[in-house]
Amino acid sequence: MLTPDYLDTLPDAAAELWQQVEDDILRDIARRIGKAGTVTETAAWQAWRYEQIQACRQDVVRLLAKYSGKSRDVIRQTLLDAALTTLAADDVIYRDAGLSPSPIEENATLNNLLNAGYRQTLGTWQNLTATTANTVTGEFERALDRAWLQVSSGAFDYKTAVKRAVDGLAGHMAGVTYPSGHKDTLEVAVRRAVLTGTNQTCAKLQLARAEEMGCEYVEVSAHAGARPEHALWQGKVYHIGGTVELDGVWYEDFETATGYGTGAGLCGWNCRHNFYPFFPGVSVRNYTDERLAELNARAVGYNGRLYTWYEISQMQRALERRVRKYKRRYLAEDAAGVDSTAAAVKLRAARKDLKDFVQATGRRNDSARTSVSGFGHSQASKATAVARKEIEKYSAYHYNKNGTIAVTDDRTGQAHPKTNATYKPFAVVDTLSQQGKQHDRTFYDAEGRMIRQVSNGPHGNPKKHPFGQHGEHAHDILWEDGVIIDRPVRELTDEERKENADIL
Is the pTM of this model over 0.70? Predict the structure, then answer.
């Protein structure tokens, strides 16, 4: 049999290869999108767009060709190792029962099944990746068009549009398209194809061996964190070829009970269950009813609540995807030449959340699920430094040597700047109004709530703002139950004049 832990890590080698392909493609696309702002005229844009789309397609095809040979070797070795492992484990049980299984290299039936399984798994992978060039190019084309439309319509400036386009791709850039039309990332598709294909091939080998040995019963493996529909049949003994009664014990049909042979059943899509020979009256169950109840129970404490291992495993997968998401976003933004500070901060928070979760639940930290090609020690150190600087920036109000307040966000160059009611703690945001004639400065408190606005002019209405020499004034922002209720206007204090002297 193949243990759940073995099956959990089985597709890692193949997935890692295609993670690298996926990450290389993303950075290439990000670089191309980052150059879009150098083309302004519509005719020139169309020509440049066509050129970039074709170049992107060619680059993807070259990458696929580069990694195809490596992938075939990895898939073949993964399948062979798994086949030898599961047959060796089953053969121990057969020998203990006094039987003599033939060596796999001398068994034509097993070898034919193994070769057929390899061809099928390889075919599934090839069919998926055959769509990659078109799928990725389509993603790139749509991202380019969205960015161009946003800039040309005046909705966003060039850097913002590029950042939005890159962030969208970094979050979930489809790499394969299934016949149903569903799209997925390369890493997810390859992991599913390799795990499913290998497990199904090994199951066919096991059943062929069972028939050779005259074994009619199997015990299905069990593990904590099984999906609910699989938890119903894991860890139990079944009969191959129909429901039977033996010595007063009823044994359900193997295929009917477990869904073996279907995508949703035993050894189906992403399934980590397997089985092994069982001889009633001789074999002893590995999983008692009490043990199965423990595996399926809400027994894991986290944040004051109890969860099943399945729920905990799903929570960890989500946290791992979050870490990977922000690593990819950081690298993509860096490649596109846009500000990657926010991605660095979110990455720092995501990594901390995962670390805290693993420590609190006793789970194993699976670095393979958070790795991103190109994000090594140097990139990690740089991202950490950027995040630390950004966090320090919003830790308190800071002042320049001349006594003026340090501005955290200078938006005076933006055509349509926004000042949200809530933002970052201790933020100081500069904007222009009155067609660039008035300078406004917005202050946020420790909770990130807008608390004060200082302006060096009267908002074009000196009668309502009869303050100072030029209408300079302050608005205090009053809150109640999480809502702004008033913005009374007043004269600036001497201290406010000092800290805002640069705009007054």
Answer: yes
In angstroms, the CA 49 to CA 135 distance is: 17
Token pair listed for 171: 């979050």
Q: How far apart are the first and last CA of the chain?
A: 77
Nearest CA among 245, 246, 231 for reference residue 289: 231
Best CA proximity match to 277, nearest among 200, 199, 206, 203: 206
Would you state the structure tokens that stand for residue 435, as one six-digit string? 């067609």
Contacts of 373 (CB under 8 A, 6+ apart): 19, 20, 22, 23, 24
Burial class (CB in 10 A: 0-12, 13-18, 19+), 245: exposed
Residue with tokens 């696309």: 29
310, 297 contact by CB (below 8 A): no
Burial label for 324, CB within 10 Å (0-12, 13-18, 19+), is buried
What per-residue string of b and e applies to 149-184 under the rule 16 or more CB within 10 Å gives b?
Answer: ebbeeeebbbbbbbbbbbbbbbeebbbbbeeeeebb
Kindly state the DSSP code that residue 501 receives in the 8-state scheme: T
Mean pLDDT of the 19-30 span: 89
Contact 266, 275 (CB under 8 A): yes
- 308 with 322: CB under 8 angstroms? no
Please state, in angstroms and rounded to a whole number, the distance separating the CA atoms of residues 362 and 258: 30
Say if strands 428-433 and 409-410 run parallel, antiparallel, or are unpaired.
Answer: parallel
pLDDT at 394 over 90: yes
**Where do we find the tokens 């009267």?**
458
Check: CB of residue 320 under 8 Å from CB of residue 351.
no
- Which residue bears the tokens 């009969």? 239
pLDDT in tens, 304-357: 999 988 889 899 999 999 999 999 999 999 999 888 999 999 999 999 999 999
pLDDT at 244 over 80: yes
Whole-angstrom distance, CA of residue 369 vs CA of residue 214? 41
Q: Which residues pair with 454 in a beta bridge?
A: 441, 474
Residue 218: which of 199, 195, 241 has the closest Cα? 241
Largest interatomic CA distance in the chain: 104
Query: Quick one: how far is CA 169 from the chain centroid?
Result: 12
Angle in degrees, 0-180, between the axes of helices 42-96 and 132-152, rounded to the nearest 10: 140
- Count of CB atoms situated within 10 Å of the CB of 49: 17
CB 434 within 8 A of CB 471: no
Beta strands in 291-382 (DSSP E): 300-302, 305-307
